[in-house]
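Please decode residue identities from the backbone states below.
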């Protein structure tokens, strides 16, 4: 049902598609639709929730599984980038149609997005506190820059492009860590396998 809705919303827009058209296209009934969703608004919210829940879960896993802020940031960025491949239709539809969401759903979305933002900020601050990241970088501006840069991927990423999503993730990791890491941390990269894996170039 969600996949059918994504296709129809992409083609005709949120208001250009009725519940009747959704259930007809996917071969179910209106009763089946309303068993899962109270309204089209809830359906649009669930479409967003798929991808924000994915990146939030992956970020929380990175924090739990990794001791070093550098490694945490690497894993967070890689999972963040991967979402644009896993949930590309969801993201495209959400950004095109999110203006139609009602306030309760908007607030629920803002809450999860704020949680994700705070994870990014906390990892940057931890990296500064532990001497891995440059202390002169303002945490919030740096975090918002990372979010903005990676988020824009939904505008240009194509599955049949010249780079795989994993290769694009490695490029983002390299760009962001080169900006974040202290000179000492870059020179110490040879002792840190999670940096070497991304082939960071150190003078």
């Amino acid at each position: 049902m969600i996949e059918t809705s994504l296709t129809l919303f992409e083609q005709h827009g949120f208001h250009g598609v009725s519940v009747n058209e959704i259930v007809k296209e996917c071969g179910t009934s209106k009763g089946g639709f309303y068993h899962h969703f109270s309204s089209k608004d809830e359906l649009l919210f669930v479409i967003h929730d798929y991808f924000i829940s994915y990146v939030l879960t992956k970020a929380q896993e990175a924090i739990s599984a990794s001791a070093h802020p550098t490694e945490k940031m690497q894993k967070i960025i890689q999972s963040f980038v991967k979402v644009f491949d896993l949930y590309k239709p969801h993201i495209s539809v959400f950004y095109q149609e999110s203006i139609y969401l009602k306030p309760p759903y908007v607030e629920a979305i803002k809450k999860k997005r704020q949680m994700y933002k705070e994870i990014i900020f906390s990892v940057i601050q931890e990296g500064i506190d532990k001497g891995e990241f440059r202390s002169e970088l303002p945490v919030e501006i740096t975090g918002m820059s990372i979010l903005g840069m990676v988020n824009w991927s939904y505008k240009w990423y194509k599955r049949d492009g010249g780079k795989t999503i994993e290769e694009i993730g490695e490029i983002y990791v390299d760009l962001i860590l080169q900006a974040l890491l202290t000179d000492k941390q870059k020179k110490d990269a040879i002792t840190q396998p999670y940096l070497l894996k991304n082939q960071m170039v150190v003078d």
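Observation: The radius of gyration is 20 Å.
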